[in-house]
Design brief:
Layout: E1 2-6, H1 9-12, H2 16-29, E2 34-38, E3 42-44, H3 49-52, H4 57-75, E4 81-85, E5 88-90, H5 92-99, E6 102-106, E7 113-114, H6 117-120, H7 126-135, H8 141-145, H9 153-159, E8 164-166, H10 169-181, H11 185-200, H12 204-219, H13 221-231
Parallel strand pairs: 1-2, 2-4, 3-5, 4-6, 5-7, 6-8
């Protein structure tokens, strides 16, 4: 059993260096059962917007390609994965939680979980969207993706963003991972691969869409303005 801890400034924000570290850790851990959690009082508050707002077009393409690789690797990870969401899981942080096989949130009503990309004015990269669409239940997909709100643990459970709420998500997460790891590893990996791998496999079409559609949208002045606004302290 392996544990990967998301640890970075800005409530474990996903920057180039932290994403690269996490991706390398995933590849090194595979296919061992894996628990993913955040350091401190957050899971991950999403992408590091300070970095994102300073990227030129080429830098943005590299950044989003790295995000896509991280999401795809976690989503298709062959062993059992459990997310321990002990604090905020927002935007890209919520995506990483969704990519895990089982997701347990803390019971603190102040925790916020959700996908607010539409509210920020940026479209999902294609492989990331494929993973999200697979994991968010059809009954709540429009509410989660188009509503673009952040939810407390009970609402996140209702919407299918998490699987359970626990007063001790870390202990519960480890117990759940032990149960999933009790299944024959070969059968688990084969079934999971059949369910997920093709959905997020890199393709020429994904690369084209990211380069020609997604990156320009993220670099557009109106998107940059919304992302910069999100960085401003709230009174």
């Amino acid at each position: 059993m392996q544990e990967i801890v998301l640890q970075a400034p800005g409530k474990n924000a996903l920057a180039t260096d932290s994403m690269a570290r996490t991706l390398a850790a995933l590849r090194a851990a595979s296919p061992a059962p894996l628990l993913l959690r955040g350091a401190g009082d957050a899971f991950s508050a999403g992408l590091n917007l300070k970095e994102v707002t300073g990227l030129d077009r080429d830098g943005m393409e590299r950044f989003l390609t790295l995000l896509e690789d991280l999401v795809a690797t976690l989503f298709a990870y062959p062993g059992p994965t459990v997310a321990c969401v002990g604090g905020h899981a927002i935007a890209g942080g919520c995506v990483l939680a969704l990519c895990c096989d089982h997701r347990i949130a803390g019971a603190d009503p102040a925790i916020r979980i959700g996908l607010n990309e539409v509210a920020l004015g940026v479209p999902f990269p294609p492989r990331t969207l494929a993973a999200v669409v697979h994991r968010v239940p059809p009954r709540s997909r429009d509410e989660v993706l188009l509503g673009a709100e952040l939810h407390g643990p009970d609402a996140a459970l209702r919407l299918g963003l998490i699987d359970e709420v626990s007063a001790d998500p870390l202990a519960r997460g480890r117990a759940r991972l032990t149960l999933l790891a009790s299944h024959p590893a070969g059968a688990y990996a084969a079934t999971k691969t059949a369910l997920r791998a093709a959905l997020v496999a890199a393709s020429a079409e994904h690369t084209r869409r990211l380069r020609d559609e997604i990156v320009p949208a993220w670099c557009a002045p109106e998107a940059r303005a919304r992302l910069a606004e999100a960085l401003r302290p709230r009174r």
